[in-house]
Amino acid sequence: MERQSRRLSPETKEKISQANIGKIRPQTVRDKISQANTGKTKSAETKKKISDALKDYWLKIPEN
After folding, report:
1. pTM to 2 decimals?
2. Which one, 20, 41, 46, 53, has least CB within 10 Å?
């Protein structure tokens, strides 16, 4: 268990990220993640960040 406290370099983190992009998680895994997050509440600060990000997102979309 000596790896537990080892810090990963940004390059290693990027390689791991790229390796996981596009992977489809099994339904059982998705259900477990959903169950783990059910009932969690977001802080006022988090809600504000989400709100601001969505406002910026919608302002950048050109109208048809």
Report:
1. 0.48
2. 41
The residue type of 45 is: E
Asked if residue 4 has pLDDT above 80, the reply is no
Q: How many Å is the Cα radius of gyration of the chain?
A: 18
38 token code pair: 């059910």
Q: Give the C-alpha distances (Å, rounded to integers) separating 55 from 1, 5, 37, 49, 58.
A: 44, 39, 25, 10, 5
Give the up-direction half-sphere exposure of residue 53: CA atoms within 13 A in the CB hemisphere. Answer: 6
Q: For residues 18 and 7, what is the distance between their CA atoms, to the nearest angstrom? A: 18
